[in-house]
Design a protein that fits this description.
With about 650 residues, the chain is of the alpha+beta class. It is built from 16 helices and 22 strands. The strands form six sheets. The protein has a six-stranded mixed sheet, with helices on one face. Strands 1-4-5-3-2 form a five-stranded antiparallel sheet. The longest helix is centred in the middle third of the chain and has 47 residues.
Length: about 650
């Protein structure tokens, strides 16, 4: 070796160990396919103004959140700098990340980006009303832990726990750094950092950090450095220092391994030596046995957890959502406690797939827990459908899935709880129908239309619901509608217009004629169902069995008769006080949606435009399909003598075809 190399060796020993620099971004992930804005638009102007205001407000604290503008061009945003950055570094990082996010996610209405020193996200959706730490991203080092992994992650978890306590009780920024000192001869230290946004309450910060700490071992995949980051809290560890200043929290590492063959003091007789050896052997044997049992239990638990995660992964079938699987898992014990062991007093309803219970999670959040029947093969298919969709679809007019449980043969889906239950409870009750004035019904109709437009045209996937009806429209505390129950929904190829199936599923009365009679379904099938639902909302009558005369036609037939006779006001719900011209226009749109030929029906994007503007001219509707007449073999419970039988919840008993 050349002599100069020897001269350089002492210098090389003092060079800092390289530390991994993390950065990542997501475009349009708070609410999938929120759409794009146009250059130089009001939305872009509001976004620029919002960032400028947030950056100015963050001086000193390194954090700011807020909204700018008015709906539909309102922008919500949040930014956070790492707690050990100074004002100049924070400002520089935020300016750079804003420039980068506009370049990386051009014209997206929703985007987020983070690097080692700062984080920024914005959206046209009001995500600030929730403190869910999603989306959650995991960044990991390339190198595996080279020492005892069990001890490594035990000490790392303890460090994180101590730092969390310190940050909550001693830092106005909810920020802490830490170090595990003298971990082993092979590894001198473990360095850690964690932070919450300061707008959280102490209990919220603690819960957020604890959730990440619980996921640490699995999410880090045994690597010697990782960063779990979400919008409201993040944790990070590494075997090389990566933060500024001295560690705020210091933890002593694992003690050196004990000498298993100690040298006995001189002068001890052979009998004492033998007794000591025997006792030592017993202690060691007992210790090894206990350690083996603990190791077995830990491995068994991890194996079960891995299986549940693998099943979820296969169901979701999306690489970009793997890091979020843990956030959906809810234990069976938690759900039993939430529902008081699925007590009948908490039952909200029951259908062909199982019962739904009201529950309260430990955080205080109210939820609806769908307990799928263990004997139903369709229950597992519905679960897969729901998980595929929750991993991809998010919209304010779709019911949000909070979590899932797959334990002890149970299949449980946990939804947000909507206090006003379903639309049919109001719409078809003479007393409660009076609570639905025309303004509320307008909002419900338009909300359902926007939700369907999102499913058909605006989401990354093309989804056909196939069971749109009043009982599947849930209402929140403000009576805003949310489409629910995607167990029968089908993913549909973007370039395909019509699919044919031999298995007819759905609810008669809402089914399009080409689907009910020939198994042909498309987005126009959902348009037909929407038209039926719109007419139900306007008239307050069910789609069949609504009129007094024994041989009268269903709702569509009666509406058409009144329309052609010029007496359409006869079928308007008398409980509504509304402009006649406006409601007649809505009936007109409903009739366009239920035309017999699917080619004549408008797309949902066209329906949304019609509903939102009185200046758009409407075509003359053609006669709807009268295939559901009371005298033609259809009963009011939705069954049909010439087709497959239906179950108690009005769903046909049939098997799902493979995707």
């Amino acid at each position: 070796m050349h002599f100069s190399v020897f001269l350089l060796l002492p210098l090389l020993l003092y060079l800092p160990v390289p530390v991994t620099c993390y950065s990542d971004y997501q475009c349009d992930s708070i609410n999938t396919s929120t759409g794009n804005y146009t250059a130089n638009s009001t939305y872009q102007s509001n976004l620029n103004s919002l960032f400028s205001a947030l950056k100015s407000n963050s001086t000193g604290s390194g954090f700011a959140a807020g909204r700018f503008g008015t709906v539909p061009n309102q922008v919500s945003g949040l930014l956070l700098c790492r707690g050990d950055t100074n004002a100049s570094t924070c400002s520089s990082c935020l300016s750079q990340i804003f420039t980068d996010i506009l370049t990386t996610c051009p014209l997206y209405k929703t985007a987020m980006m983070w690097d080692d020193l700062c984080y920024f996200e914005f959206s046209n959706q009001d995500f600030l009303s929730s403190t869910d730490n999603l989306p959650l991203d995991t960044q990991i080092n390339e190198n595996n832990v080279t020492v005892d992994q069990t001890q490594f992650f035990q000490d790392t978890a303890k460090l994180m726990s101590d730092m969390a306590s310190w940050a909550i009780n001693n830092s106005s920024k909810f920020f802490a750094t830490g170090e595990v000192r003298n971990f082993s001869n092979k590894l001198s230290s473990i360095y850690g950092l964690l932070q919450c946004t300061p707008n959280l309450a102490k209990s919220q910060c603690k819960s957020c950090l604890q959730s990440l700490i619980n996921q640490l071992t699995i999410a880090s995949e045994g690597r010697d450095g990782a960063w779990l980051v979400g919008p409201y809290c993040n944790i990070r560890y590494d075997t090389a220092p990566f933060y500024d200043g001295v560690a705020m929290v210091k933890v002593d590492g694992a003690p050196p391994s004990p000498n298993l063959a100690p040298v006995l003091p001189s002068g001890v007789n052979d009998g004492n030596k033998k007794s000591t050896v025997i006792i030592l052997a017993i202690v060691i044997s007992l210790g090894v046995t206990i350690l083996s049992i603990l190791t077995f239990c830990i491995c068994l638990y991890k194996k079960k957890l891995h299986r549940r995660k693998k099943l979820l992964s296969e169901m979701i079938n999306s690489e970009q959502n793997q890091a979020n699987i843990d956030s959906f898992l809810i234990s069976l014990s938690t759900l039993k406690a939430a529902t008081i062991n699925f007590n009948e007093s908490n039952k909200l309803g029951e259908g062909g797939f199982g019962a739904v219970y009201k529950g309260t999670l430990p955080s205080g959040q109210e939820v609806a827990v769908k307990r799928l029947s263990q004997s139903s093969s369709q229950g597992l298919e519905e679960l897969k459908n729901e998980l595929v969709l929750v991993a991809k679809l998010k919209h304010k007019n779709l019911v949000r899935v909070v979590g899932v449980c797959l334990e002890a043969q149970e299949k449980l889906l946990v939804y947000e709880f909507l206090p006003n239950r379903s639309l049919d409870i109001f719409l078809f009750d003479k007393e409660r129908r009076q609570e639905l004035d025309w303004i509320k019904r307008l909002a419900i109709i338009n909300g359902i239309a926007r939700g369907l437009q999102y499913l058909h045209e605006d989401s990354q996937l093309k989804i056909i619901h196939r069971d749109l009806k009043a009982s599947n429209i849930l209402l929140d505390s403000d009576m805003d509608p949310k489409i629910s129950d995607f167990g029968l929904a089908r993913l549909f190829p973007v370039d395909q217009t019509v699919h044919v199936t031999r298995r007819i599923v759905g609810t008669f009365g809402y089914m399009a004629p080409e689907y009910a009679m020939h198994g042909r379904y498309s987005i126009k099938s959902d348009v037909f169902s929407f038209g039926v639902l719109l007419l139900e909302i306007v008239t307050g009558k069910r789609c069949c069995g609504s009129f007094d005369t024994e041989m009268s036609e269903d709702l569509l037939g009666s509406t058409w008769e009144q329309w052609t006779a010029g007496t359409i006001t006869n079928i308007i719900d008398p409980f509504m006080d509304c402009p006649t011209n406006e409601i007649i226009r809505y009936i007109h749109i409903g009739l366009l949606c239920v035309q017999e030929d699917l080619k004549d029906r408008p797309r949902m994007s066209e329906v949304v435009i019609m509903l939102g503007s009185n200046t758009v001219s409407l075509q003359v509707p053609s006669k709807p399909a009268f295939y559901l007449r009371r005298g033609g073999g259809v009963s009011c419970d939705g069954s049909h003598k010439n087709l497959v039988p239906v179950s108690q919840n009005e769903l046909t008993i049939s098997e799902f075809e493979p995707r």
